[in-house]
Amino acid sequence: GHQIAINLASLTFMVAMGMGYASSVRVGQAFGAGEMAKVRRIGFSSMYFVIAAEIIFTLGFIIFRHELPKLYINDVAVRNIAAEMLV
């Protein structure tokens, strides 16, 4: 159950990390072009986008906590443990 919960949590982390890497490239390009207002806008918009994505993942974990472990295993006891850990 713990492995399932950690795997799903890692997925959300990887999405956030990917968005962070993409925004750092955009910020670097804007900084190199000397567009400081654009640097600030890109930074804040990327931060808000990551926060929104993580809220969506959180709601998905809460709403689908019993369905997500079914993707990994058929054992009901393990699925129940994973469902508890997702919340």
What's the shape? elongated
Largest sheet, strands/sense/barrel: none
Total helical elements:
3
Q: Could you give the order of the helices and strands? A: HHH
Roughly how much helix do the residues carry, as a percent range?
Answer: over 70%
Low-pLDDT parts are none
Say what oligomer this is: single chain
Distance between the termini: 12 Å
Number of strands: 0
Secondary structure class reads mainly alpha
Describe the structure.
It is built from three helices and no strands. The protein is mainly alpha-helical and 87 residues long. The model has no long low-confidence stretch (mean pLDDT 94).
Secondary structure layout plus pairing:
Elements: H1 2-32, H2 36-63, H3 76-86
Structure at a glance:
The chain is an all-alpha fold and 87 residues long. It has helices at residues 2-32, 36-63, 76-86. The mean pLDDT is 94.
Please supply descriptive tags for the structure shown above:
elongated, 87 residues, mainly alpha, 80% helix, 3 helices
